[in-house]
From TrEMBL:
Keyword tags: Disulfide bond, Glycoprotein, Glycosyltransferase, Golgi apparatus, Lipid metabolism, Membrane, Signal-anchor, Sphingolipid metabolism, Transferase, Transmembrane, Transmembrane helix
UniProt keyword annotation of Transmembrane present: yes
Protein family per UniProt: Belongs to the glycosyltransferase 29 family.
Enzyme Commission (EC) number: 2.4.3.8
Lineage, top ranks: Eukaryota, Metazoa, Chordata, Craniata, Vertebrata
Protein name, entry field: Alpha-N-acetylneuraminide alpha-2,8-sialyltransferase
InterPro entries reported in the protein's UniProt record: Glyco_trans_29, Glycosyltr_29_Sialyltrsf, GT29-like_sf, Sialyl_trans
Membrane topology designation: Single-pass type II membrane protein
Length: 340
């Protein structure tokens, strides 16, 4: 009688699910390597790196087929006409229909002449501090930076000075510039360090980010800034997210850095990546800050930085991109520019 009652309360399928979950917890099919294991593999690889043109072409073809970054990375009048419904990529059931107010904010067509030659994607990792990579970064034909990073003189030897595209997440507009509700002057002045860069904003990812992004657009437009705001296409961001999820990046949302690397792999002949090392110690087992300018940790609920790094590391090992995670020297730079 007791067993009959138990079976009625706990169906067989539910019991099996519990057993499977317990098994996967104890013996998961995949475990992320420890920080130490990753560092040891990187050290074993050494400084040797060979560009793999076939691998580059193959990966570019795959990412073009899934995401078409050349045409779709930014909202344009060409890919987003009046009447199109934009679905926010970071929120379910939220959308915005492009109308006569929104449409004029978009550039006419994809703004970048492709293929770009040598591109540098610069993250903000603490591994950049004292790296001496600034000279190398500035040799690139096109430099992408993440989230309005500081480019003070104290940092330029490590991070360079050139910028051609820089992302500006709405959360930065909110926290650093109080949503531009009280003053726009400090924001406009702070943007001058990025020269005539494109300012790439995800205005249609989360609904609360739309108004701050539009204020940033008007702040620059009203002051005749030489910077042009590009709004990230939520369809592109969503397709890139699915692309990496199928390859093992399990996170609520990709980091800005991985979005930019994905963009670069679709636009550029050669991709060099700097400042991507999401661990608290460098290869010499010395503690490093999370960013080269502060030690504020990201929300682990949203991002899966170690998983992202392993994807980039696999691309590095296969010669599709070059990942710089130690010191840069001019000798290395000259060697890299030699044909392989």
């Amino acid at each position: 009688m007791f067993m009959k009652c138990l079976r009625s309360k706990l169906p067989v399928w539910a019991a099996l699910c519990v057993l499977v979950l317990c098994w996967l917890y104890i013996f998961p099919s995949y475990r992320l390597p420890s920080d130490k294991d990753i560092a040891e593999e990187v050290l074993r690889q050494g400084q040797v790196w060979t560009k793999n043109q076939t691998g580059i072409d193959t990966f570019r073809k795959v990412i073009m087929e899934c995401c078409d970054p050349r045409k779709m990375f930014a909202l344009t009048k060409e890919n987003s006409p009046i009447g199109k419904v934009l679905w926010y990529d970071g929120e379910l059931y939220h959308s915005r229909t492009i109308n006569n107010d929104t449409y004029p904010l978009f550039v006419k067509e994809a703004p970048l002449k492709v293929p770009l030659k040598r591109c540098a994607v610069v993250g903000n990792g603490g591994v950049l501090r004292n790296s001496g990579c600034g000279w190398d970064i500035d040799q690139a034909d096109f430099v992408m930076r993440c989230n309005l990073p500081p480019l003070f003189k104290d940092y330029t030897a490590d991070v360079g000075t050139k910028s051609h595209l820089v992302t500006a997440n709405p959360s930065i507009i909110e926290k650093r510039f109080q949503n531009l509700l009280w003053s726009r002057k400090r924001f406009v002045e702070s943007m001058k360090v990025y020269g005539s860069s494109y300012i790439y904003m995800s205005a249609f990812t989360m609904k609360p980010g739309t108004k701050p992004s539009l204020r940033a657009y008007y702040a620059l437009a009203d002051t005749s800034s030489n910077q042009k705001v590009l709004f990230a296409n939520p369809d592109f961001l969503k397709s890139v997210g699915k692309f990496w999820k199928r390859r093992g990046v399990h996170a609520k949302r990709l980091s800005t850095g991985l979005f930019l690397v994905s963009l670069a792999l679709g636009l550029c002949d050669e991709v060099m990546v700097y400042g991507f090392w999401p661990f608290s110690e460098n290869l010499n087992q010395q503690p490093i800050s999370h960013h080269y300018y502060d030690n504020i940790l990201p929300d682990s609920y949203f991002h899966a930085m170690p998983e992202e790094f392993l994807q980039l590391w696999n691309l590095h090992k296969s010669g599709v991109l070059r990942l710089h995670i130690s010191h840069c020297t001019e000798i290395q730079n000259s060697n890299e520019n030699k044909p392989h």
